[in-house]
Each structure stands twice: as structure tokens, then as C-alpha cells.
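FAQ: What does the model actually see?

It sees only this:
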Amino acid sequence: MRITRALSASLLLLGLAVAPAAADSSPTPTDSASADGDAPTQAGTSFRTATEVEQGQTATASGSTGDYLYWSFPADAGQRPTVKATVKLPETHAAQTWQVDVYDGLRRRQSCQYGAQTRTAAADSSSVELACTLRTVRAWSETWANDPLPGTYYVRLTAVGLTTADLGLPVGTEVRVDSKDIGGSAAVDGSLAEPLVPGIAVKSEADKDGSKDSAVLSAIEPEDGWSSGWWSDRWVWTAIGGVLAALAGVGGYALTRGSGRPHRVPPSA
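And it is asked to produce this:
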């Protein structure tokens, strides 16, 4: 009877632990139409002038072959961003090779886990599609490592190896960034003091000196703020491990305690 009560209590605790995770894991509906309504329609020409775009928006821009087009977006710890770019080519053109590169807040080029980062469009192609899925953004990393860290990320789209005849031809571009929340499996012991966004270091120095002048920070950030989601499925697995350990202890005790003193054996004096 006592074992049954212990099992019931353990299962109840397990249910309470799993319920918040189920609530967090359910996708929240987003109105993509309203999000794209505010999407930018131009691109920057350098890191400093990169056009800011929110995740989930489809940014568009017109340009010319040979231009460097830049956008920026925020990515927080635990996210695995995927950058997709589409280039609409002119009716007449030679074979063109297009490439999309992604840089972090320190302007370090980030490698793609998978995706067609570079593609060559044939002479009769009307468009070319590119994609780059980054590694999961870590909350903290060693100074010598090249791990993705929370902050602003830059997308650069350009054509490489162009012929002289194709330079300056008009093109249309679309860029979209979406992220997958990896959860507690990507958690690390540590975090950055501040996200790697433009102007954060200058602003911190200004605050220490008591100066009123401070750098203008990036205007975009994750919907819930930087690293605001303290809850992750790591808490669930920790609770499950604790429950399983308790069940193992109860079961071990039940197996080893025996049936007590036999009735034929008199109690010791």
C-alpha cells in the first residue's frame, strides 16, 4: 500500500514537471501577413548600413549584379537560425554564381551546418535559391572559439565570378530568417554579460563614466528580450531523473526489506 502511494505521488510530480514543458513546446500562431507588412524593402551596402529585419519576416530589395547586399537580424541562445535567400534574375544573363554569407556580432564569418550556401544559375534560369543553417547559438563560449553567440547577425548576399557583360544587371532579392528552438540540449554553464549588438561596448563604458552620451544600439531584439526564457526542457529531464531515482529507491527498499521476523522466531530479549 505504501509503495502504491509512493508511486502515485511520483507520477503526480512527473505530470506537474512535464506540463509546463508541453505548454512551452506548443507552437504559437503568428500572423505572417502582418509581420511581412512591416518588412523592409531595401538592403544595406555594408555592415554599418545593414538593414534590420526581424525573424519570420521576408525582406525584399532591388539591386544590381556586383552589389553587396546586407541585412541584420537578432539571434538568442538556444536558437538555430536558417537564412534563406532568393535572387530573381533578369531575362537575359550568362551563368551566375551567387553566395550568401552570415557573420556574427563580432563580424566573424559563421559556417553553415547544411544548406546550399553557393549556387550557380544557368543562363536560362529565372531565379536562384540559397540557404544556410547555422550552428546553435550558445549562451557562452571560450574566447578562442568561433561558436555563434547571442547578438546581431549579418547576412551578405552577392554574386561571385561575374562576367563583365553581367555587371550592373538589375536583380530582385528576398531574404527570410527563421529559427528552431533547440532547448535545454544546447544549454551551457555560463552566459554573456551583454549580447553582441552594435554599440553595446561603447554604451557600457558611457554608463560607467556617468556620461549622458551613449551609442545607439541595434533597434531589433528577440520577441521576449535577450535570454529572457529561463525555462527549458533541461528542467523537465532533471525532474524526470529525480523521479526515476526516487522510484528506484522505493523499489529497492521493497525488494530488500524482506517480510519481517518470522512468527516462529521469538523476539530477542
